[in-house]
Amino acid sequence: MKIYIKYMVSIRCKMVVKAELDKLGLTYGVIDLGEVDVRGQISEGNRDALRLALLKSGLELMDDRKAMLIEKIKNVIVEMVHYTDELPRTKNSVYISEKMNHDYTYLANLFSEATGVTIEHFIIAHKIERVKELLLYDELTLTQISYLLNYSSVAHLSNQFKKITGLTPTFFKHLKHKRRTVLEKV
What we know:
About 60% of the residues lie in helices and about 10% in strands. It has nine helices and four strands; from the N terminus they run E-H-E-E-H-E-H-H-H-H-H-H-H. Strands 2-3-1-4 form a four-stranded antiparallel sheet, with helices on both faces.
Protein backbone atom coordinates (compact mmCIF):
# COMPACT_ATOMS: atom_id res chain seq x y z
CA MET A 1 0.00 0.00 0.00
CA LYS A 2 1.29 3.45 -0.87
CA ILE A 3 1.07 6.37 1.51
CA TYR A 4 1.63 9.91 0.35
CA ILE A 5 3.44 12.55 2.38
CA LYS A 6 3.27 16.28 1.78
CA TYR A 7 6.40 18.50 2.01
CA MET A 8 8.75 15.52 1.65
CA VAL A 9 11.31 17.15 -0.65
CA SER A 10 14.75 16.17 0.56
CA ILE A 11 16.95 13.29 1.62
CA ARG A 12 16.62 14.50 5.21
CA CYS A 13 12.83 14.19 4.95
CA LYS A 14 13.26 10.60 3.76
CA MET A 15 15.40 9.89 6.82
CA VAL A 16 12.74 11.34 9.16
CA VAL A 17 10.01 9.25 7.55
CA LYS A 18 12.17 6.11 7.71
CA ALA A 19 12.86 6.70 11.41
CA GLU A 20 9.16 7.19 12.20
CA LEU A 21 8.17 4.06 10.28
CA ASP A 22 10.84 2.10 12.14
CA LYS A 23 9.59 3.42 15.51
CA LEU A 24 6.10 2.17 14.69
CA GLY A 25 7.44 -1.18 13.53
CA LEU A 26 5.96 -0.79 10.05
CA THR A 27 7.65 -2.65 7.21
CA TYR A 28 8.18 -0.75 4.00
CA GLY A 29 9.86 -0.96 0.65
CA VAL A 30 10.90 2.02 -1.37
CA ILE A 31 10.81 5.49 0.19
CA ASP A 32 10.61 8.13 -2.54
CA LEU A 33 10.06 11.85 -2.33
CA GLY A 34 6.43 12.20 -1.32
CA GLU A 35 5.52 8.54 -1.17
CA VAL A 36 6.31 5.35 0.71
CA ASP A 37 5.49 1.79 -0.24
CA VAL A 38 4.31 0.26 3.06
CA ARG A 39 3.97 -3.51 3.13
CA GLY A 40 0.63 -4.66 4.40
CA GLN A 41 -2.10 -2.55 5.92
CA ILE A 42 -1.66 0.22 8.48
CA SER A 43 -4.01 0.20 11.47
CA GLU A 44 -5.89 3.40 12.29
CA GLY A 45 -3.84 3.72 15.49
CA ASN A 46 -0.54 3.47 13.61
CA ARG A 47 -1.80 5.85 10.92
CA ASP A 48 -2.74 8.45 13.55
CA ALA A 49 0.59 7.97 15.37
CA LEU A 50 2.47 8.36 12.07
CA ARG A 51 0.41 11.45 11.17
CA LEU A 52 1.26 13.12 14.52
CA ALA A 53 4.95 12.17 14.37
CA LEU A 54 5.28 13.51 10.83
CA LEU A 55 3.49 16.76 11.74
CA LYS A 56 6.16 17.41 14.39
CA SER A 57 8.73 17.32 11.58
CA GLY A 58 6.70 19.54 9.26
CA LEU A 59 5.40 16.68 7.11
CA GLU A 60 1.78 15.65 6.48
CA LEU A 61 0.04 12.44 5.49
CA MET A 62 -2.29 13.02 2.57
CA ASP A 63 -5.61 11.38 1.81
CA ASP A 64 -7.06 13.47 -1.05
CA ARG A 65 -6.17 11.96 -4.48
CA LYS A 66 -5.84 15.35 -6.22
CA ALA A 67 -3.62 16.67 -3.43
CA MET A 68 -1.50 13.54 -3.76
CA LEU A 69 -1.16 14.06 -7.50
CA ILE A 70 -0.16 17.70 -7.04
CA GLU A 71 2.42 16.74 -4.43
CA LYS A 72 3.76 14.06 -6.74
CA ILE A 73 4.12 16.65 -9.54
CA LYS A 74 6.08 18.88 -7.14
CA ASN A 75 8.31 15.98 -6.15
CA VAL A 76 9.01 15.04 -9.78
CA ILE A 77 10.06 18.64 -10.43
CA VAL A 78 12.21 18.87 -7.28
CA GLU A 79 13.90 15.59 -8.14
CA MET A 80 14.40 16.66 -11.76
CA VAL A 81 15.93 20.04 -10.90
CA HIS A 82 17.78 19.38 -7.65
CA TYR A 83 18.70 15.71 -7.56
CA THR A 84 19.83 14.84 -11.08
CA ASP A 85 23.26 15.56 -12.45
CA GLU A 86 21.79 17.07 -15.58
CA LEU A 87 18.25 18.01 -16.53
CA PRO A 88 16.63 15.81 -19.18
CA ARG A 89 16.99 17.15 -22.72
CA THR A 90 13.29 16.58 -23.44
CA LYS A 91 10.59 19.19 -22.92
CA ASN A 92 9.48 19.55 -19.32
CA SER A 93 5.92 18.69 -20.31
CA VAL A 94 7.00 15.40 -21.92
CA TYR A 95 9.23 14.48 -18.99
CA ILE A 96 6.55 15.17 -16.36
CA SER A 97 3.82 13.46 -18.38
CA GLU A 98 5.96 10.32 -18.77
CA LYS A 99 6.98 10.26 -15.09
CA MET A 100 3.39 10.72 -13.93
CA ASN A 101 1.70 8.53 -16.57
CA HIS A 102 -0.91 11.26 -17.10
CA ASP A 103 -1.77 13.74 -19.83
CA TYR A 104 0.25 16.92 -19.30
CA THR A 105 -2.70 19.25 -19.96
CA TYR A 106 -4.68 17.57 -17.18
CA LEU A 107 -1.71 17.80 -14.80
CA ALA A 108 -1.02 21.44 -15.70
CA ASN A 109 -4.65 22.49 -15.20
CA LEU A 110 -4.93 20.61 -11.90
CA PHE A 111 -1.63 22.07 -10.64
CA SER A 112 -2.50 25.65 -11.61
CA GLU A 113 -5.98 25.41 -10.13
CA ALA A 114 -4.70 24.09 -6.81
CA THR A 115 -1.52 26.13 -6.38
CA GLY A 116 -2.25 29.35 -8.24
CA VAL A 117 0.99 28.99 -10.21
CA THR A 118 1.77 27.18 -13.44
CA ILE A 119 4.02 24.15 -13.58
CA GLU A 120 6.47 26.12 -15.73
CA HIS A 121 6.69 28.93 -13.16
CA PHE A 122 7.22 26.33 -10.43
CA ILE A 123 10.05 24.79 -12.48
CA ILE A 124 11.62 28.20 -13.09
CA ALA A 125 11.53 29.01 -9.37
CA HIS A 126 13.32 25.75 -8.60
CA LYS A 127 15.83 26.22 -11.41
CA ILE A 128 16.71 29.65 -10.02
CA GLU A 129 17.22 28.12 -6.54
CA ARG A 130 19.47 25.52 -8.14
CA VAL A 131 21.41 28.28 -9.92
CA LYS A 132 21.87 30.05 -6.57
CA GLU A 133 23.15 26.82 -5.03
CA LEU A 134 25.60 26.22 -7.88
CA LEU A 135 26.79 29.83 -7.77
CA LEU A 136 27.48 29.50 -4.04
CA TYR A 137 29.50 26.32 -4.60
CA ASP A 138 31.62 28.31 -7.05
CA GLU A 139 32.71 25.18 -8.92
CA LEU A 140 31.01 25.83 -12.28
CA THR A 141 31.01 28.79 -14.62
CA LEU A 142 27.75 30.47 -15.55
CA THR A 143 28.08 28.90 -19.01
CA GLN A 144 28.34 25.42 -17.46
CA ILE A 145 25.39 26.12 -15.16
CA SER A 146 23.24 27.30 -18.08
CA TYR A 147 24.05 24.10 -20.00
CA LEU A 148 23.45 21.90 -16.97
CA LEU A 149 19.99 23.41 -16.40
CA ASN A 150 18.95 23.40 -20.09
CA TYR A 151 19.01 27.15 -20.67
CA SER A 152 19.35 28.13 -24.31
CA SER A 153 22.09 30.62 -23.42
CA VAL A 154 23.82 32.37 -20.55
CA ALA A 155 21.85 35.50 -21.45
CA HIS A 156 18.56 33.60 -21.03
CA LEU A 157 19.64 32.29 -17.62
CA SER A 158 20.84 35.76 -16.54
CA ASN A 159 17.62 37.44 -17.66
CA GLN A 160 15.46 34.87 -15.87
CA PHE A 161 17.64 35.07 -12.74
CA LYS A 162 17.36 38.87 -12.64
CA LYS A 163 13.60 38.75 -13.28
CA ILE A 164 13.08 36.38 -10.32
CA THR A 165 15.67 37.67 -7.82
CA GLY A 166 16.15 41.27 -8.91
CA LEU A 167 19.91 40.61 -9.08
CA THR A 168 22.32 39.52 -11.75
CA PRO A 169 23.98 36.14 -11.16
CA THR A 170 27.37 37.85 -10.87
CA PHE A 171 26.10 40.31 -8.27
CA PHE A 172 24.43 37.51 -6.34
CA LYS A 173 27.67 35.54 -6.34
CA HIS A 174 29.50 38.49 -4.79
CA LEU A 175 26.96 39.12 -2.03
CA LYS A 176 28.27 38.58 1.46
CA HIS A 177 24.89 37.31 2.61
CA LYS A 178 24.14 34.40 0.34
CA ARG A 179 20.37 34.29 0.13
CA ARG A 180 18.90 30.92 -0.68
CA THR A 181 15.39 29.72 -0.03
CA VAL A 182 14.58 26.45 1.70
CA LEU A 183 13.14 24.05 -0.92
CA GLU A 184 9.92 23.62 1.02
CA LYS A 185 9.25 27.36 0.65
CA VAL A 186 9.83 27.60 -3.11
